[in-house]
Amino acid sequence: MRRQIPLASLACLTMLSLAACGGGDADPAAYPESEITFVVPFAAGGPTDTVTRLIAEPMSKELGQQVVVQNVEGAGGTIAAGQVADEDGDGYQVLVHHIGMSTAPGLYPDLAYDPLEDFKTVGLVTDVPMTIVARPDFEPETLEELIAYVEENADTVTLANAGVGAASQLCGLLIEQATGVDLTEVPYDGTGPALTDLAGGQVDFMCDQTTNTVTQLQAEKIKGYAVTTPERIDALPDLPTTAEAGLPDVEVGVWHGLYVPADTPDEIVQKLTDALKVALADQNVIDKFADLGTTPVAEDQVTPEAHTAKLEEQIDLWTPIIEESGVTGG
Ligand code: MLT
């Protein structure tokens, strides 16, 4: 989707040196002159959507323009990332993505974009624990019982996820690798709708981020087995870690970051980074994150440099694990 060109940018296009105007038709000094779209690669109502909407409001206030959230679902988040990679680098289309940005290169041999080459990083946002959860009447009561149950019932147990490239799929893959069991996966456009089906008893179990599961677990609408972080979390103090409960190899934290197309001028990236810093220091954001089992990253992580370093480190970490599994998104 292409945005209409603002008047100041039209003026910029008439200048002799387009380079002075930065990437595409952008006028970095005047940015932002109109509404900004935050593109979320999964369904509305899910964890990425929740994180995005929480930071969108204070960022909008700081940038002085409306920030609208657009959910572009499909192919485990790769459709949305491909769409933003193809946009003009004018700062008006911002991708909010998570760990999936680092797993996609291993999962998709023909990925339409290169996460490191086709984007500029803006800054990290938050690191969200995952939980292993089940439908309320699922037989196993503990993680140990779940492992035994899936081993005995591998043909019938269903594992929900948000498609190949989603955090839920990566966590499910780690469970399958740790148990040596190949399960029937049920893909959704996001874990928002997957969790609704889980609570309704349509699928057996899944991994999902605390930003989606804490409220449901506290209300006992779903069953919880473990949290996938090295330490227990304050929002769910009774939930053991995967290491405590018998699956030490299933450890994953879902980090989030903001991206813009690679030709976006640095001045625009800096404005987005500054606004993100303000959003992550907002007490309302901090409190809501805490309620959902997470915290904003430290301020020194809200930079393009820290974000790029994290992306590179995570691509190096996950690519061999994914290649060894043989899983591919096509
Ligand atoms: C979502 O927003 O639906 C998720 O982040 C899905 C996932 O990656 O598991």
TrEMBL record:
Q: Which InterPro entries does UniProt cross-reference here? A: BUG, Bug_dom1
Which Gene3D superfamilies did the record assign?
Bordetella uptake gene, domain 1, Periplasmic binding protein-like II
UniProt keyword terms in alphabetical order: Signal
Cite a single Pfam family from the UniProt record. TctC
The signal peptide here is 1-19
Q: Which PROSITE patterns match?
A: PROKAR_LIPOPROTEIN (PS51257)
Family assignment from sequence similarity: Belongs to the UPF0065 (bug) family.
User: Any idea what this protein is called?
Assistant: Tripartite tricarboxylate transporter substrate-binding protein
The uppermost taxa in this organism's lineage are: Bacteria, Bacillati, Actinomycetota, Actinomycetes, Propionibacteriales
